[in-house]
Write a structure and sequence with these properties.
The structure is a homodimer of 320-residue chains. Chain A has 320 residues and is α+β, with helices and mostly antiparallel strands. Helix content of chain A is 43%, strand content 15%. Chain A has a 5-stranded antiparallel beta sheet with strand order 1-2-3-5-4, covered by helices on one side. Chain A has a two-stranded antiparallel ribbon with strand order 6-9. Chain A is globular and about 60 Å long. The two termini of chain A are 39 Å apart. At the A-B interface, strand 1 of A face strand 1 of B.
């Protein structure tokens, strides 16, 4: 939760003048999102989100993210739509930062998802993959298997201070995953960060997906593996096979998995868990005293890895 | 900026079930307010603010605050209105904390107010004082002159670590103010914390007042003195006489000051500055490592005190 950048009245007024979105009625900093500064804007034209991109988002990647959101929205995926200013561009600048206004998406993220939420998520994920097939831009996944060893090197010496044996376990995982990582799986645009915060529901109906700032071009089944990690475990590491089965079934109702994807599911799930364990570990060890943001606990993913190491096939993930 | 309390889906749903405010469409933690946890709620019935009261608000004071907001709203003051639940009560409980839903007030707070903002503020402050005259409840101002020495005692030993000579200056101010503090001035309900964050404008028009959680029963002119401090100085301590003159003129256009109030203005302004310097000082010295909230700088009020010490009369504050 954070507002990293304070925006002065005059800077905001000048920025909004470039948009045809009516008169500003209120704006409030939102205590969500650890990467960027977000404001809720209410104007005579409706509700919007104003995002200022902080250091973690590379400015060169923004056209990919913004064009993708426009493309997906045109393809019927409920996601925030970038609002173009009077000059016809979506990407602006405010307080020295790249800044964008997007449409406000109704819905509430669930903190404790159930089987039905997982099934709905699976369907939305497959629809996202299908809608991205004719998106022309490519962004390499810079947090895939090739990035994990450099991340580990940053944290290796201190890893055991967090959890005894973590460094040794990670060395084994890394060696296995670097050797076994699948290639040639069906792929295209993936969300790559579809945690519960980024999926909205109204009542029990999935109302939309947000936060496309890790989206990239990679294997579809890896996106599913990220969701298995993010949605189907309790914080204590307990795996919910019924939720995982519903997630996969919801996905396959829209886009059936190919045999190579089914076979790769355990290694992809183990890799996804390692990816989040490592980025959390680096953040955990790097967090300055007095930081505004409480870093997320890497040990949650260490516990998931224990499950993935013993999984033998897609049926262990509840696939019928 | 802070969300101190995480609210689970099920707890929020159960809480909202008690209110006739439609279906929840979205809610977001607001990165504002250093005392309480605030969520923006959007439902099929409109926009609302959900506040969870954290430790600094005494639960026994909540009926005063909530009844006051209802009273003021009925009297035509634009302020948040507590929403009563189906049982007819405004004060509920959520996650072990007292919790209230209030109506959403449109408007934007100005960070860099000008003369016109100050004039409008003066008028709204006088209207607030007038509207509170027939409010039956009383809440003593527990941050008035009698509280300042106990606050100072907590901070005295460390005060000079923040600013050399601060302890000695404060001793002089305290002795002067305890001797000279006026009694018998016209009084009633005062807001007591009408900083720029708590006053909303749409365009140049004042649209409402929020955050009544310091409201109490005290001298009206002391409220004006708080506003002089909060609105008419730059952070570097520079006094803006034109803004102060407009604030007072705006106030007197609705409720002319009595001669005793005019005479008391310098001592009230000095007292108001000392009150905020002292509470900020105690917070500054008390802030734990890793705190979510950056404490406000007491030195801003030390600089204001330098001005107030040399002021000789209301004309030094721009009163015509």
């Amino acid at each position: 939760m954070a507002v990293y950048t304070e925006v002065s009245d005059s800077a905001l007024a000048a920025f909004l003048d470039a948009y045809a979105i009516g008169t500003l009625l209120s704006y409030k900093g939102i205590a969500e999102g650890v990467e960027n500064t977000n404001f809720f804007l209410h104007t005579t034209a409706g509700n919007f989100i104003l995002t200022l991109y902080e250091k973690r988002v590379r400015e060169a990647d923004l056209p990919f993210f913004l064009n993708l959101m426009e493309h997906l929205a045109r393809s019927g995926i409920a996601c925030p739509q970038p609002v173009r200013n009077r000059a016809g561009t979506a990407l602006g600048r405010l307080c020295g930062r790249p800044a964008v206004i997007v449409s406000f998406l109704e819905g509430v993220s669930v903190k404790e998802p159930g089987v039905d939420h997982c099934r709905a998520l699976g369907g939305a994920l497959a629809a996202l993959h299908a809608a991205g097939r004719d998106f022309a831009m490519i962004r390499e996944n810079n947090l895939s298997v090739g990035s994990w060893r450099p991340l580990f090197v940053q944290a290796e010496a201190q890893a055991d201070t967090l959890s005894p044996g973590l460094a040794a376990r990670t060395r084994v995982d890394l060696a296995y995953l670097e050797a076994a990582w699948p290639t040639g799986l069906p792929g295209g645009v993936i969300h790559a960060d579809l945690f519960t915060d980024n999926v909205f529901f109204i009542g029990d109906t999935l109302s939309g997906l947000i936060d496309f700032y890790f989206a990239c071009t990679d294997a579809f089944a890896y996106d599913l593996a990220i969701c298995l990690n993010a949605w189907c475990f309790s914080a204590d590491g307990r795996f919910h096979r019924d939720m995982a089965g519903a997630l996969i079934a919801g996905y396959e109702a829209v886009r059936p998995l190919e045999p190579a994807e089914v076979e790769a599911l355990p290694v992809l799930a183990r890799g996804a868990a390692l990816r989040f364990m490592l980025t959390r570990l680096v953040d955990w060890l790097d967090v300055p005293a007095g930081a505004l943001v409480q870093p997320k606990d890497p040990r949650e993913y260490d516990r998931r890895l224990a499950f993935h190491r013993q999984a033998r096939g897609a049926s262990d993930y509840g696939r019928a």
